[in-house]
Each structure stands twice: as C-alpha cells, then as structure tokens.
Amino acid sequence: MTSDARLNELGEFLKVRRAELSPRTVGLPDTGGRRVPGLRREEVALLAAISPDYYTRVEQGRIQPSASVLVALAHVLRLDDHQRDHLFQLAGRHRTQQRRPAAQKAQPQLRRLLDDLTASPGVVIGRRMDILAWNPLAAALFTDFAKVPEDRRNCVRILFTDPSMRTLYADWRAVARDCVAHLRTRAAKHPDDPRLTSLVGELSMQDKDFGRWWGSRHVPSRKSGAKRFRHPVVGELVLDWDTFTGSADPDQELVVWTAEPGTPSYDGLRTLASRAAGRLDGPEAGQGH
C-alpha cells in the first residue's frame, strides 16, 4: 500500500471510529439535534488539543500526523491496543510503548517547607498543575481543596470551573490567560501524557476563552509577580508570589504568596491566618499533606 493510500485509510478509520462514539462516552453533553451520529470533527480536535483544521487534514489524508497527535487521538477515540497499533501502522509511525507517568506525591522537602509557612499561603503544584499539597492559609485564601475530589484537584480546572475564582481575582482574565500559557508549557514537556490531553480537551470544550487562549501561543509570565485579590472575608489583598522548584523532582513547584510587612495586605493575611488556625486546631489539621 502506498503512503497516500495508507493516509486515506487512516482518515476513513478515524471517521468510522468517531461515528461510533457518543458525546457522553467522552464526557461531553449530548444536546441532541445532530445530523450525523457520533462525534463532530471539531469535538475530536478540541479533545485532542489540536486545531480543527489540522484534524480535518488528517481525516482527508492530506498530512501525516505526528506520534504525539496519534497518542492523543487514540486516547480521545478510546482505542484498544489492537486499534492503536492499526492507527500507527496506517500513519506510518512507529508506536513505542509509553510508560504511564507515576502518580505524583508532594516531595517531603517541599511538605516540610509548606508546614513551616504559617503566615503565607502556599501550594505544591505537579507536572499537570495538579495541587499536590497545600497549607491551611492557602485553603483560606482560595478554596477548601480537601473538598475537591483528588482527580479534579487541578489549579487550571478550578480556575475555570469554580465561579468564586472569577470574583476572587481582581483581574481574572489576565490570571486565567497566563495560567493557560503555563499549562501549554507543561503539555509541550509531556506531549504523550493522556491526562494532560484530556484536561486540555475538557476545558477547551467547556470554555471558549480557554480554547482561544490555548491557541494564541501566549508566553507565560515569569515565576514571580504580584496578584490582586478581592477576598470575601478580609477584602482587597495585593500579594507577591514566587515559585520554587523542587530539586528531587523538577516537575514539582512550591508557590508561595506573601505581603509586604506594614501594609493592609499583610494585616489581612494575618487575620486570615488566625481564622484558618482556629478552624484547624482540631482533627482536620494537616489535611492535604
């Protein structure tokens, strides 16, 4: 079979497979009114974190997709091992057995640093921007992370799906756009991580801003800066934030927010810390570690 014929067969295989899947199968709402069965091209593309135009050209047999795109498509289309092998063969790519990334746990050194932060909010963020650990003051500033299911405890997902975040941040749009840019750098570093692909696809489908910002190639800010908050308990806070990378696991970062002593923001953090300490003097102390 010639290369062109294989790519045409690849396109037909993708068409058939997406027609076999319902929106609910891949976690999308089924609003009805579909003229054709299965998933639309645009939905497959967004779930695979690629552009609709790119995916269309793949289905039309006009381009040879990269191995990382094939991994994403195999995940979105729920292919089994035999189907994955067939997909890679049609694309003329060699399928390497990807080792599933080990589940991340906050490094002990970062946990100890977190435990010592009693007057500053802090969280440990993993390779997918999952929240691996936090201190009581971070929960008081942002949200009660312990009440968020572990598989949903991701700072990007929370930022886009928790309505309170849009009022907590004085400039939510700027914060969110920057957060998307940071997630893109993580995805570029781990292109074959299916959970990262799923996260990007899920948020692209749920939020038009996310999808637009994902495709904008915005360059993220540095690993430090300032954020302004409108907290429902202590009012306006202007906090500096810094990021510290763990030496034992470079894919983990400790993010800390601080305020300059003598400022209203510093006093607000002290008030928030006092309230958080009062709530966690009981058996829930240490949650998230």
TrEMBL record:
InterPro entries tied to this protein: Cro/C1-type_HTH, Lambda_DNA-bd_dom_sf, MLTR_LBD
Domain annotation HTH cro/C1-type: ranges: 38-84
Pfam families assigned: HTH_31, MLTR_LBD
Protein name as it appears in the record: Helix-turn-helix domain-containing protein
Coiled-coil residues: none
